[in-house]
């Protein structure tokens, strides 16, 4: 049995050496693949940095001077003019609502009230009527 034991041990040692060689080869291939990936990532990072630097330089060239940016702000006179225009429109609407209506004109207050209370039936009153005693330009 000693010859058999020696043969088995020799065979086992050969298998262990073969497994160790395969494991070392796989480890070396894995290390090489990882190194290639690190190099590719470093190259991509360098390209990205160059692109960002190029974009930053282009943006600096196309940026307007600082005094041009302050012109975007509105002056208080423009704001006052806008407020006055809005006040005029509000006054015109109030005058339109409160003015006395003619014989064939509908009251805006009645029209709004009936529309709120009766829904679609109130809209029939609120809509334009096709009949008028004298031709006038339609307002709605």
Question: Can you walk me through this structure?
Answer:
The protein has 140 residues and is mainly alpha-helical. It has 2 domains: 1-63; 76-126, no CATH class. It contains 5 helices and no strands. Helix 4 runs antiparallel to helix 5 (120-126). The mean pLDDT is 81.
Terminal-residue CA separation:
117 Å
- Provide a count of the helices: 5
* Binned strand content: under 5%
Helical coverage, percent range: over 70%
Summarize the biggest pleated sheet.
none
β-strand number: 0
Low-confidence stretches: none
Structural class: mainly alpha
List SSEs in N-to-C order: HHHHH
Average pLDDT? 81
Radius of gyration: 45 Å
Mind sketching the topology for me?
Layout: H1 2-62, H2 66-70, H3 76-98, H4 108-118, H5 120-126
Compact description:
The protein is mostly helical and 140 residues long.
Give me some keywords for this one.
about 140 residues, elongated
């Amino acid at each position: 049995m000693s010859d058999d034991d020696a043969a088995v041990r020799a065979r086992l040692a050969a298998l262990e050496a073969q497994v160790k060689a395969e494991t070392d080869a796989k480890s070396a291939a894995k290390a090489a693949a990882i190194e290639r990936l690190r190099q590719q990532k470093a190259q991509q990072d360098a390209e990205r940095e160059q692109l960002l630097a190029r974009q930053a330089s282009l943006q600096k060239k196309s940026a307007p001077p600082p005094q041009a940016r302050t012109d975007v702000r509105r002056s208080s006179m423009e704001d006052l003019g806008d407020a006055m225009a809005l006040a005029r429109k509000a006054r015109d609407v109030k005058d339109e609502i409160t003015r006395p209506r003619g014989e064939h004109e509908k009251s805006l207050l009645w029209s709004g009230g009936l529309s709120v209370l009766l829904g679609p039936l109130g809209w029939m009153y609120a809509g334009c009527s096709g009949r008028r005693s004298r031709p006038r330009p339609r307002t709605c």
